[in-house]
Amino acid sequence: MTPQFLIAAPGSNSGKTTITLGLLRLLHNRGLRVQPFKCGPDYIDTKHHTLAAHTASINLDTFMMSEAHLKEVYGKYSAQADVVITEGVMGLFDGADRMKGSSAEIAMLLHLPVILVVNAKAMAYSVAPLIYGFMHFHPGIRIAGVIFNFVNTASHYQFLKDACADLGVTPLGYVPVNDAVKIPSRHLGLAISAEHDYEGIIEAAAAHIAKTVDIDLILDSMRSPLPAATPIPDSPKGQLRIAVASDEAFNFTYAENLAALHKLGTVTLFSPLHDHQLPPADLLYLAGGYPELHLEALSANTPMRQSILDHCTSGGKVIAECGGMMYLGETLADRDGTEYPMVGFLGIKTTMKDAKLSLGYREVSIGQKRFKGHEFHYSRCEETAPLEKLGTVYNARGIEVPMPVYRKRNVIASYLHLYWGEQQDWLTMV
Fold first, then answer.
1. Where in this chain does the record put each CobQ/CobB/MinD/ParA nucleotide binding domain (predicted)?
2. 230 within domain boundaries
3. In the predicted model, is pLDDT for residue 219 greater than 80?
4. 44-53 helix and 16-29 helix, angle to the nearest 10 degrees
5. Is 381 a catalytic residue?
6. For 61-82, b where at least 16 C-beta lie within 10 A, e where not — what string?
């Protein structure tokens, strides 16, 4: 029997990420093997989880994954864990279309008990109807305990415990306000910036939570059998040479996407920032990330830009997502509008000036095939030359959205972050 649970909240900004990171580090410091998961397509929280637990965090997403594949992924990565912690996304029942894609849907699918993190800063016994609603809204959800955040005194916590006693739910502790454990803004890459001491923040969060949250009670009360890991049959390894961009500017990759690439051949990581030559490659994967935070260095690395341009113009295969697409364009402008030359293969110019957020789940239909992913960017892109466009893109509700998928020679580029851990046909499109 292994402790496993999902940490959720009534809404965003309740502090569930900070509490998740603190628990991951605290349990790691106890010598336990902790496996983190993240609901939804988020890349940034998984990086923080990985830092906190010293184990790669894995995304779980019921929009991008089938139920069978999600269960397979959860079973595979949790098989050797002493504790399994899944962090929810937004509010517990918030999905792309009602509950579709929500933390609640994943909790029900995996039969995970839910620890609800409640912002009780300005509440006392009134938390009772709030918690009651979450306990009884859907019969498939089990609220197994509550952690109260932003509670500064034991006397305040007593009112909250009284509410839990009347509801029949377990109070697991409280967390006082502490500016030293706040996670900085996650917009535009600031959350993984070297400017912030995330190691120090996470260690401080672990120590802070340990004072007032009953860790032993959590471990003892959340035990259940781990799902059986689905045996994955061996398949012949492919012969492709695959180069994957991986550095401070390009790092938005799903573990299962990389696993799919490893099945196709030999994967070599390289850095468009620091290396000067593309490694020998049949397929180049330019993942998303934050090229806009490294414009001078990317632009100044002319040998690498030329090497990638040569690969593209000579018919080399390329998958470029979001930041990778921006890098393949003619120029990329910063917030002030200053343009920096990029690879120059695609007839597009991208700018961060007057940035506006575009986000949401996406499904692209190409012929009889459909591929799922998500869009998340602040930049704007304009074409400077005609480009072939593939398929039609829809949002989670099936409404068409004006987001092109470009094709030029053997290069496919778009703002889409696609999940091909299961839909590996995408890799045959280039």
1. 6-188
2. no
3. yes
4. 20
5. no
6. bbbbbeeebbbbbbebbbeebe
Backbone angles phi, psi at 354, to 5 degrees: 55, 45
Are 48 and 21 in contact by the 8 Å Cβ rule? The answer is: yes
pLDDT value at position 233? 66
Q: What separation in angstroms does the CA of 120 have from each of 127, 174, 398?
A: 7, 9, 38
Reported pTM: 0.92
- Averaged pLDDT for residues 367-378: 91
Q: How many domains does the chain contain in total?
A: 2
25-80 pLDDT, tens digit per residue, is: 999 999 999 999 999 998 899 999 999 999 999 999 999 999 999 999 999 999 99
Tally of CA atoms within 13 A in the half-sphere of 212 that contains its CB: 23
Residue 231 lies in a domain: no
Query: Which one of the listed residues 39, 164, 312, 322 is annotated catalytic?
Result: 322
Q: What is the pLDDT of residue 188?
A: 41
Same domain? For 180 and 289 the reply is no
Of the three residues 224, 251, 269, the one that is the final residue of a domain is 224
Mean pLDDT in residue range 343-368 = 92
CB 141 within 8 A of CB 150: no
In a shared domain, residues 211 and 248? no
Compute the distance between CA of residue 75 and CA of residue 61 in angstroms, rounded to an integer. Answer: 14
Q: Residue 35: which of 15, 58, 69, 1 has the closest Cα? A: 58
The tally of CA atoms less than 13 A away on the side-chain side of residue 316 is 25
**């959350």: which residue's tokens?**
191
Instruction: Please report the beta strands in 76-222, taking only residues with DSSP state E, as ranges in sequence order.
Output: 83-87, 114-119, 143-149, 171-175
Domain encompassing residue 148? 2-224
CATH code of 78's domain: 3.40.50.300
